[in-house]
């Protein structure tokens, strides 16, 4: 009797043990392999986790050797002389780069578009190529296309050259205009972001200290005068130093501007004031404006397309006291041997990048 009890307990223990092993084995199989109805064993594929930061990452990359790529950040330092290739993902890409590469139609620059990315190649880069490089996706709706501002990527590229700490300039003496209503910039950019740069006045000799409030410095722009005044006029230069001998930038002539930004301020007058048939008439349209802002003139007059006239246009910079500099632009219309058809309304339209102004004067026979 005892023997049967022992045998029953042993069989029961074996059965329970086999059940546990099978349960453990089933747990191991879950998630690894499955049997399809056709009898084929298939490996389970776990879903890939999405990169949460993908949207904010730049699509602007530099192609390195051996097929490697470097995603560019806000700024990048490179060595002059070595060709660079930049790529931007997308089948319709726009590019921006230092403007002088366009100004001089530089053959070292080439831009191509493939099905998957845009490509910018610059051969034999130098310190002068230091600047902002950017790309963006172009979105088109039919024939209308526009820049996608949410998918625009920018990197400021420094080509570090110990012999050229300042970005070379074709102009050896630049003019900087100071306005009371906007900051002014002395554009002494550097090729090495680690360079220590200071601003100096030539006469009387003094260093202008950057204090992060009135005068600030940005290696990608230069020195910024936040609130320009007549006291800031004069000849200035920048000095940069890293580990070697200090280097001096080109010189900058700072001029204070009397006239603020805006549409042309126009004056219109006739000479002589009293005319009659057979006399000669001069009508002068004068604009006072910003020194570097061009002005264009357009005339309307009584004998237009029927009587010959002479139009002479010129401009000059004028110092109007207290160091204020103004650009005086003039257009003079001359009508010789006045006839009846020449009397009437003379209209001058002056236009600049801020807008246009129209004035009229009525010439009556005396």
Automatic annotation (TrEMBL):
PROSITE patterns: IG_LIKE. Residues 33-54 are annotated as: Disordered. Keywords: Disulfide bond, Glycoprotein, Immunoglobulin domain, Receptor, Repeat, Secreted, Signal. Gene3D superfamilies: Immunoglobulins. Residues 263-365 form the Ig-like domain. It is found in: Secreted. Forms a complex composed of PDGFRL, TNK2 and GRB2. This is Platelet-derived growth factor receptor-like protein. It comes from Lates japonicus.
